[in-house]
Amino acid sequence: MVQPAISGGSNTILDARQMIEDALLYEPEIVSILLQPHFVFSRDDQCARSPILIRISPDTWSIRWRYDFTILVASEACDALNLFHSIVNMFAILST
């Protein structure tokens, strides 16, 4: 399992390459979202209960969680919430 590269304060940075590749085996439709440069997804909107910002950069394949970031920055967050559901669950397990 991938371990957090950096953990502290309200931020956690995870190396997401392996988790994303594993998730794509089960939810291949995620590819279309992951290929968008610097895709940003916030769960702090009408589709979710807790603020989590997920920033996916194809260059670094890293994901940053900012629990204090509450602004919706992606118009497709509602769709992304459904697509990323299993991945977010994996992140939650790793960050505890």
TrEMBL record:
One of its GO terms (molecular function) is oxidoreductase activity. Keywords: Oxidoreductase. The keyword Oxidoreductase applies. SUPFAM superfamilies: Clavaminate synthase-like. InterPro entries: TauD-like_sf. This is Uncharacterized protein.
